[in-house]
Amino acid sequence: MNVDVLLSPAEYETASPGRFADHVCVVFDVLRATSVVVTGLAHGVRSFIPVLTIEEAVQWRRQQPDVLLAGERDGLRIGAALGGGVDFDLGNSPREYQPARVAGKDIVTTTTNGTRALRACLGAQTVLAAALLNLGATAQWLQRRRPSRLLLVGAGTGHHCALEDALAAGALLELLASASEITEWSDAAQVARAAYRQAAGHLHEAIAGSRNGSRLLANPDLCADVEFCLRRDVFAIVAQMQSDGRITRAV
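^ that's the sequence the OP posted. Answer follows.
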């Protein structure tokens, strides 16, 4: 398995057309979009449909009134002022995605970075949405299928790398390396793994000091999301993007 890591929009959004066609891509947005996807699917969501813009999400609602709209801008749920008069049903906190609210639903979601990263990878051989919440299940899926080219994509924050995504990518690489699955490492993959190994004993402390971690912890309504998202292997599911862009539970 040949592995590489991209950690910012400047890397994944400027990739040449078809660059990912022979790759299995694993997308991380630990705080919080892929943690939402994993939690929602585990709690019965039928599919997530990631879109790039608020306008695109609202158009889905016009065409299919039964879909739920979800997402954030600047970390906060999208309200009527941004949604063209439409209040989104859900924000970007995984704690909102309880079975009674979301089971059996299709959810159209747009976030600042996570949905951009997922859409950028559409066209790859396979695209998985991963988080610490389902890290072990994702590693096992990869070990069973043994892709020749694996690309880990950190959604980042704004235009920059996000520490929590780099550390999650490193944690996945550590699992794969321990199973002797990796034969060729890019420099970026080696950096991600080394960063995780250095922070593994104090992961919560490291991420609490990150840009996203500190921002969420400063918000009384969202601070509990950090602890929620940093739990490891809570859900034994794999989240896979289909060719039409919908994300569902992998068989």
